[in-house]
Structure formats: C-alpha cells, structure tokens
C-alpha cells in the first residue's frame, strides 16, 4: 500500500480505517478520495474525521473477510491513483462582521499574540481554509489550518450561549457555529450565512473537502 493504514472492526457492523494521527491537508484529501471511492460498496454510511473513516455496513449481508478484502482493494487502488490536486477547489465565500458585539474575543486574540485587532483580521482573511470534517452540532465545520500568528487556545470555561453564525478560533482551527448553542471557541466575528438548515434540500452549506474564504464586511 502507498500509505500505511490501520483497519479495525470496532463493532459487528463498523469498520474503522485510520491513515494518520494529525490535522493535515494531504491526509484530509486522501480521506475525501476514499470516502467517494467506498460509496461504490453496498454500505449503510460513511463518517469521516481528520485522518480516519468509519464505514457502517450490514453484517447480515456481508461476510466480513470478503468485505474487508473489497475495502482494502479499493483502498489500494485509490491510494495508487491519488493526486493531491488543487485545480478544482470548491471555495465558499463567507462574509463576516468582526469584533465588537459580533466578535467579543477578537481583542483577546490580538493581545494574546501582541498584535492589533486589525492584524488579526488581516491574517485571518488572507488564507483559504479547508473543511476537515463536520461534528459537535449538525453542520459545524472544523476548518484549518490557522497560522501560528493567530492560533489561540479555546476558552477555559465554555460560554453557555454562542449565537448562530459566530466565527471562532480554537488552537489552529476555525469554525462557524451553525446554531445557537454552548461553545468554548474564541469568537472573533459573525456571519449572516445560514450554515445548517434542515428545511433545505441539502441542509449543509459546508462539507468535508470544501474550502472557505472569509471576507470582511463593515459592522
């Protein structure tokens, strides 16, 4: 195999595939490629994380050894033909109001790094961020990787309420709260973009392997 992988049966109908142990652009692209390739199998669902996939299958329909052989064959073929191309990025533009009532932690992030609030905003909006996975609440996209200039630890005590659309920082990741909920990320701004809506045909505005560009708008 081109990449070392660990295959683990974690329940009678769930197979976990791990190909790394860190947040990494290339690993995430491989996870996306594998997720697409495995959909040709007769399975129930696929859940992706930073460096792993969980394949749920019906154990009554599959002989596990045969199923595992099929999975490994698809894995080998996908990795053999994998090319980390950035030619066709799906870039989502998200407009954000920074600071003040919209970003109560912007000053903290600036003070933590001994830079100005303006420099935090400029650094944050100068990059395109990859969606690694969804989790925490429906539609919450874990994105990165933030530069060391603005990467900031999360709150020691989470807030009881974070408004929907709030843009936060936690370590070297950023994310957007899709709904009003508790949360411990440093909030630097807010967007009016609806990130998750069960009423839409496709409820999720962001998906793994998407890219996001944040654009500043006046408060």
What does this structure look like?
The protein has 219 residues and is an alpha+beta fold. The chain folds into two domains: 6-81, Gyrase A, domain 2, CATH 3.30.1360; 91-216, Cyclophilin. The protein has helices at residues 25-38, 64-80, 106-113, 117-125; strands spanning 6-11, 14-18, 45-48, 52-56, 91-98, 128-134, 141-144, 159-162, 166-170, 173-176, 181-183, 186-191, 211-216. Helix 3 (106-113) packs across helix 4 (117-125). Keywords: ATP-binding, Hydrolase, Nucleotide-binding. It comes from Thermodesulfobium acidiphilum. This is Sensor histidine kinase inhibitor, KipI family. Residues 5-206 form the Carboxyltransferase domain.
Summary, kept brief:
The protein is α+β, with helices and mostly antiparallel strands and 219 residues long. It is 22% helix and 31% strand.
Fold topology:
Layout: E1 6-11, E2 14-18, H1 25-38, E3 45-48, E4 52-56, H2 64-80, E5 91-98, H3 106-113, H4 117-125, E6 128-134, E7 141-144, E8 159-162, E9 166-170, E10 173-176, E11 181-183, E12 186-191, E13 211-216
Parallel strand pairs: 5-13
Antiparallel strand pairs: 1-2, 2-4, 3-4, 5-12, 6-7, 6-13, 7-10, 8-11, 9-10, 9-12
Helix pairs in contact: 1-2, 3-4
Provide keyphrases for this structure.
219 residues; alpha+beta; Gyrase A, domain 2; Cyclophilin; seven-stranded mixed β-barrel; 4 helices; elongated
